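Dear colleagues,

For the upcoming journal club I promised to circulate an example of a predicted protein-ligand complex. I picked one with flavin mononucleotide because it came up in last month's discussion. The inputs are reproduced below in full, followed by the predicted structure.
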Amino acid sequence: MIESFYKLVKPMLFRLDAETAHRLVLGMLSAWPIADPPASPTNLNTRVLGLDFRNPVGLAAGMDKDAIAPAAWQSLGFGFVELGTVTRRPQPGNLRPRVWRLLEHRALINRMGFPGKGVETVARRIEEFRGKEPKLRIGINIGPNKDTPADKVADDYAALAGRLGTLADFVVINLSSPNTPGLRAFQSPERLREIRAALDAARVPNVRYLIKLSPDIADAELGPICESIVDLGFEGIVATNTTIAREELGISTSYEGGLSGAPLRDRSRATIRTIRRHVGTRVPIIGVGGIASAADAYGHIRAGASLVELYTSLIYEGPGLVKSINAGLSALLTRDGFRSISEAVGADV
Ligand SMILES: Cc1cc2nc3c(=O)[nH]c(=O)nc-3n(C[C@H](O)[C@H](O)[C@H](O)COP(=O)(O)O)c2cc1C
């Protein structure tokens, strides 16, 4: 039903500014009642990070920064969501407009800059949702406030983890948004050590920390970063965030920010493959970037992703995409003789 409704309203939404359309849709989805998720094919049930997932398809960070519509994501068939990025204090983000559609490229460019209500509001919403016994896994993505000085960024992560860690199945340390000045510089062994020390000092019980990386890291730097992620005891890697490169777009554009959607797919997949070569099976990868079909999701999985996420394709294809990716993924596994997702992870590496 929601699928046909989206088809009906999409032309109207696409006449609005991208962020206005997004807010409208989220507003509608916020009223969604909690309900059982659609059934997932059994060969999609998977165990990652020591947790059972109904299926490996998740919602990427940024779509629901303030945890407005978690029940809707469950009903659409996602196996998990990554809420956030959540910051310690509320902040407005960059000036609007700050999201643009590139229709022919099935892409978006955004320079949102983590607008959000801040940790307290989001924590209360997630607590309320947890009380409804959700049947999808909940990841929470955290990031520093724009005005946090570089030497206090680790403290922001620790404070955020302290408040949100026990509410999340896993916490994603976002080091890769291109829209918070200086953030990507934290993708280095020294800075990772600093963040780890601050997180350890926060002593959050039973928490799994993952690091979200950019697709714009030079291959020579990616190796040492991966090694320190594993050595420091982080539990996984989310790859990738948006790119500041424009090569794959093939046109010049004056829009500033991170590019997502179809033109990002191969760059993300190459990054996933390189990370997999470095980390092997020591930590799982959540693959994200340009997934718009079951074949795309399968390609990321074969490149080394144990779970996948999407954002931009949901805008273009609509909410029916989640179920169709899951159905297609199940069929692709069967076609290739894999009994489960985990058997296909990294098959191409
Ligand atoms: C409008 C927009 C806002 C985003 N906000 C965040 C964010 O707050 N935190 C984050 O880690 N990633 C954010 N992302 C990146 C996505 O989580 C994802 O890594 C990226 O878009 C690639 O996936 P996709 O091609 O399926 O969209 C955002 C992406 C878009 C398009």
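Two points we might discuss: The chain has twelve helices and 13 strands. The pocket of flavin mononucleotide is lined by residues 60-62, 65, 85, 99, 108, 110, 112, 114, 141, 174, 177, 212, 241-242, 260-261, 264, 288-291, 310-313 (CB under 6 Å).

See you all on Thursday,
B. R.
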